[in-house]
Amino acid sequence: MAPQPRELASVDTLDTPLKLACGLTLPNRLIKCPMQETLAKAPTYDPPIDTFANLYTKWARANYGLIITGQVQVDIRFLSVLGDVVIHEHSLEAPYIDAWKRWASISKAGGTPCVVQLAHPGRMSPTGAGVRPADMPTMCPSSIPVKLGDTWLDKLALDKVLGTPRAMTLEEIDNVVELFKHAARVAHTAGFDGIQLHGAHGFLLSQFLSPHTNRRTDDYGGTPEKRMALLKRLVTAIRSEHPAPLCLGVKLNSADYMDAGQGLQQDEGLEQVRWLATCGMVDFVEVSGGNAENKTSGLHQSFGRKTLDRAPKEESTRIRESFFTEFAEKAQAMQSPVPIQLSGGFRSRNGMADAIESGLCQLIGLGRSAVLEPESPREIILNREIADDDAFARSHIVRGQWLAKLMPLQILGSSLSIQFFYHNMRRLGKGLASDPDMSIPKVILMDTLETLRAGLTTTLSRILQSLSVYRRPQKIE
Ligand SMILES: Cc1cc2nc3c(=O)[nH]c(=O)nc-3n(C[C@H](O)[C@H](O)[C@H](O)COP(=O)(O)O)c2cc1C
After folding, report:
1. Is 105 within a domain?
2. Is Flavoprotein one of the keywords UniProt gives this record (predicted)?
């Protein structure tokens, strides 16, 4: 039987190359979002090539238009979770730089460009995540502790885990600029196509951009213009040291929706996008939203098969899947000369194509689906064997969310669903497939057993080492 003709307007839209101002051509519009892999190991947290070879090879062969790595910390004292990759003072030297070069070549092996996301968690660095003395406080533009949950137990746990940050001195701000510049040099030397600055989700740069965490009255705070000063300084410094063809992107929050209008509001967020779009130094802006403190980053939202099983174009020409559509519509009105990447909530091919065709954005970020189905661009979204109306990335629904509701501490409950994605990235790192049907309780159980097993192995090997030291034959004179 002759194959049926298919209406593939949506795949045509997504499978269109885009040339950035730096000269880099993205082969299509699907971007693998930055997602921290939690696979690097102490003491130096260099790129763990044994596991990254499996994980990044999957993404490299998946036919994305661009791969953005998980966030890489620029300051080894402050990680956002244990297992973050870090750029440290020796990363430019052998043998450390070799791991960076291997990572770049693995990620780019399929012909897809790859940029490294650079980050600093600021006040979001838990105790134990980072090589720092136990009593060293985290840093923030102003001394504003994270608030998560109202019970005394929540407050106690937060105090133990994150504590009260110290307001940064001007010298510390200068030091952060130097750390980001050093990190950009490492990414460039390693052979990556560029870098992306993480200015979203409540991390340090976003702490400077938000009036909630930035109450400074010096050159770095007090007005919307001054709250942007650190980001502007970084963009200018990095661009002047690395002109095109190095690609420079920035990830921003659309807003952080704090109570009583204290946080970053949409108008200020739009001005931040406007500056980045018109400064002539940035190649793309990724728009996301929220932060861990208010649970609006989109990771707590999901679309299941029920709601999205069919998204036929002819029935709804404005599908609007993205979590941050309203902000993107306002950004659209400013006719940004640089491409906007919209991340959060996309699942259907038609929904993604609609966002581009209506001018909402030029690039589509895929996060959780890149973990659950790492090769979904090649296998589903850009697969011309699948009709537009039938092409969906996998549901983001995580089983066993009831456990989060049972947790007495909000700080624990709200971080459980992200553990599911970390766990699946670690599976991919081991060369296994993701297990999208695994429930949160099972993830927690397996991770606990793994930690115990690793702890036991370390302890046993220490005992054995000490035995061999004590039994070493005495030298006979
Ligand atoms: C496990 C996990 C880790 C993430 N790590 C990062 C990160 O390192 N940097 C970042 O900017 N966003 C990070 N994000 C957010 C994603 O980049 C993306 O904005 C978010 O998942 C929304 O897209 P989605 O609805 O397609 O998942 C992470 C998300 C997940 C699920």
Report:
1. yes
2. yes
Which structure tokens are listed for 104?
A: 């770049």
| pLDDT < 70 stretches in the chain | 1-7, 257-261, 290-320, 404, 406-414, 458, 462-477
Cα end-to-end distance, the chain, whole Å:
90
Residue written as tokens 């939690």? Answer: 38
Q: Which residue out of 299, 323, 395, 427 has the highest number of ligand 1 atoms within 8 Å of its CB and is therefore the one to mutate? A: 299
Q: In the prediction, which pLDDT does 310 show? A: 47
422: in domain: no
Q: Which of 30, 32, 36 to mutate to test the pocket of ligand 1 (most atoms within 8 A of CB)?
A: 36
What residues line ligand 1, using a CB cutoff of 6 Å?
33-36, 70-71, 117, 198, 200-201, 251, 288, 298-299, 343-346, 365-369, 418, 421-422
- Which residues lie closer than 8 Å to 69 by C-beta, 6 or more apart? 34, 85, 103, 107, 114, 115, 116, 117, 192
Q: pLDDT value at position 262?
A: 76
Structural domain containing residue 309: 9-397
What integer pLDDT is reported at residue 293 of this predicted model?
67
Q: How far is the CA of 6 from the centre of ligand 1 (A)?
A: 33
Residue 83 φ/ψ region, left for φ over 0, alpha for ψ in the -120 to 50 degree band, beta for the rest: left
Q: Which of 182, 68, 84 is nearest to 125 (CA)?
A: 84
The domain that contains 228 carries what CATH number?
A: 3.20.20.70
User: Residue 407: what pLDDT?
Assistant: 67
At which residue do the structure tokens 């081991």 appear?
Answer: 430
* pLDDT tens-digit series, residues 181-217: 999 999 999 999 999 999 999 999 999 999 999 999 9
Distance 367 CA to ligand 1 centre (A): 5
Q: What is residue 132's DSSP assignment?
A: S
Per-residue pLDDT, 453: 85
What's at 421, amino acid-wise? Answer: F
Calculate how far, in angstroms, residue 169's C-alpha sits from the geometric centre of ligand 1. Answer: 30
Q: Is 132 part of any domain? A: yes
Residue 456 lies in a domain: no
Instruction: Quote the number of domains for the chain.
Output: 1
Let me know how long the chain is.
Answer: 477
DSSP 403-465: HHHH-S-HHHHTTHHHHHHHHHHHHHHTTPPP-TT-BHHHHHHHHHHHHHHHHHHHHHHHHHH
Ligand 1, closest atom to CA 366?
A: 26
